[in-house]
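Support case: calcium ion complex. Customer-provided input:
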Amino acid sequence: MSANAKILIVEDEEEITTLLRYNLEAEGFVVFCASYHEQATKTLNENLPDLILLDWMLPEISGIELCKRWRKNSKTKNIPIIMLTARGQESEKIEGLITGADDYIVKPFSMLELIARIKALLRRTSQKALAEKIEIGEIELNLDTHRVIRAGKEIHLGPKEYAMLEYLMAKPGIVRTREQLLNNVWGSDVFVDDRSVDVHVGRLRKAINKGFDKDPIRTIRGTGYAFDEKFDK
Ligand code: CA
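Agent response - structure generated as follows:
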């Protein structure tokens, strides 16, 4: 975690903003403030923060609504958000988490606790960003290096087989049709027929199962393929 992580505070109560800014800057954070939605959106467009502190009760558009919007936006969807809520919003707090906030804290809060939560959340998210891999059971796929390891053994795959495995492993259990595989692995503007998908799945299976009994790829007759969600069971 960078000591100079950028935090955007969206809060319309000036006293709280001042207090937050003072304490967060003392911790070494770079702080931006916005008191309503348009200002927050403008700040987000200019400078993407590492974390957002978002007040629930804002004029015009509530914090919850803003949170929903930001989660739908590809630019802002992964920014960790801590919601500031008022006491007595117990049931709404749950709604807040469902709509995509990563954490919440009830006002009036202890500054020490808030700072601890901010640091914990930044640690969690930066670790997640570093761990660019998918691991299911004994199969591990590194998204940066495209290396595939099964039970400690490196599996050599061609680029199409790798892309196919990554696509299937991203959503275990979800059936991908041949058409989806074609579009995702070859691109929709390339002419390849369904048979090619089967041929490449065959190659993928051969490479990944060599020396192993369990096949992680399920064939769904007449439809397509899936990475077996029970593979690690
Ligand atoms: Ca408020």
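The chain has eight helices and twelve strands.

Case will auto-close in a few days if no follow-up is received.
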